[in-house]
Design goal:
Largest sheet: none
Radius of gyration: 24 Å
Number of domains: 1
Order of helices and strands: HHHHHHH
Helix content: over 70%
Strand content: under 5%
Structural class: mainly alpha
Number of strands: 0
Amino acid sequence: MAEIKSAIELAMEKTRDLVVSSEEREAMAMREIEDKVKAVLRRYVEEMVDADDASKELDRISADKALKKAIIVDTLVEEFDVHKDNERLLALFSAAGIELPQSLRSELERLNNAFREEVEAREMVSRKKIRDDLAGLGVAGSAVEVNLAAWDEWREEVEKAADVFRKNMETLKEKVKTTSGHVLKQV
């Protein structure tokens, strides 16, 4: 009678003689470190841990210090976004022992503030346009409150503004990576 094997047994038989190269092992180790750093970052961004706890968790990740710092810088920088308040990310740089020059911090704050101001200006224009459109349809008065989130025109305006600032943010991300001296090679 034939033996019935599970899928895992069949897979193990087929891969028994396969060997992982040193490059593959290095890439897997790097991915594992990245995953751990991203997990800490996610908990921090979602305010599940404070900067001190995040710093302690990052310290507990066992890896070469230079490699770990490069991964932390890369991961934090990739989280920079014009739609977010990046102040918590900047605080985590310090908590992880990575000091960014004040000029880069100021540039990031300036970029975030400029984006917010642009969105606020576009919001006022969009609200007025939508109110005028509604008034043209006979819907007007003090009780009419425009729900911008429900209007496609508003989402388009925010995306237009974000596109302009996103290019500047990408340039800033590259500056942070090169200034920190921890540029990761892509595996």
